[in-house]
């Protein structure tokens, strides 16, 4: 008769060893998952901080102060550590530079050159959860050490979209400097004169830097499809002096003026409003601010700011299509044109509807446009 030997308790040792390993894997999953969540929350906070700070980088002397305060305020609206508390971004976390890969500083100079905002923040002192238990089992205190994560974001104030501008730039006034170059916001500037493009005047610019800055290049940029890859901060080509009266045909297309209805609005589309502003129908003192202001006493009954006229698709004749009707509003003499061409004028953001070949130099000098934003020499500002 054989003797059966029974072994008891062996499974307990096996399970205990397995639990130790399982606890380690659970600790890794939970504690590293915790760090990953906090890292993601912190990245959201620094992204918000950098974007908000960059919006304040307008070149003004107090730009860095405003950018720092705005970055902290917006960044700290985001919560971290499972939404348990503020991100804790402080002024020292926000720095600035004039280039993406350049040197960053919280008091970068010159302020006018600052284009980039960097927001970097670290969250430290986060004690692990299950890894502390593993530390007790194993005797290795490293497992129970506090951990931290950090996040960094860089943003710049720039255009995310391209536009199709007309090839016109505005020269600073004598002694003018950034950001307004001697102009007041809303002030009008002379566009074309015998000395077109002088200080304080607007003039033709070859946007494409094509090397061919003559009238054919300007005509291609002024008409459709135009040059539609220009962004804020993009470099312009060379200035082109002179009135360039041969551009009158394609220029007038933008106001819905087509000689003998050729080629017509279906080929060269007019702009959103052709309503023009002069000292006759908009009597406001400098800065006139016809873009978003209110008409002063004595202005024409039809007068409203450009944004209102653009929304209403107002023509040169406001609600009509007559050159002479528009002339009565503006005091100009567009009706010198010896034809029966009617104005179906739908845009004209530069407020210039003259047909230059019919005008004298003196009259061209009187053509004015509202300054809604300044142009830095050699750049689109």
Share of helical residues: 25-40%
Largest sheet properties: 3 strands, antiparallel
The helix-strand sequence is HHEEEEHEEEEHEHHHHE
Residue windows where pLDDT falls under 50 for at least 5 positions: 337-381
Please report which band the strand proportion falls in: under 5%, 5-15%, 15-25%, 25-35%, 35-45% or over 45%: 5-15%
Gap from first CA to last CA: 104 Å
List keywords for this structure.
single chain; 381 residues; alpha+beta; 3-stranded antiparallel beta sheet; 8 helices; 10 strands; 12% strand; elongated; disordered C terminus
Structure description:
The protein is α+β, with helices and mostly antiparallel strands and 381 residues long. It is 27% helix and 12% strand. The chain contains eight helices and ten strands. The chain has helices spanning 10-54, 63-75, 130-138, 215-222, 248-253, 306-311, 323-330, 361-366; strands at 79-80, 85-86, 94-97, 116-126, 147-156, 168-170, 188-190, 202-205, 239-240, 368-370. The protein has a three-stranded antiparallel beta sheet with strand order 3-4-5. A three-stranded antiparallel beta sheet has the order 6-8-9, with no helix packed on it. The chain has a two-stranded antiparallel sheet with strand order 1-2. The longest helix has 45 residues, at 10-54. The protein is elongated and about 110 Å long.
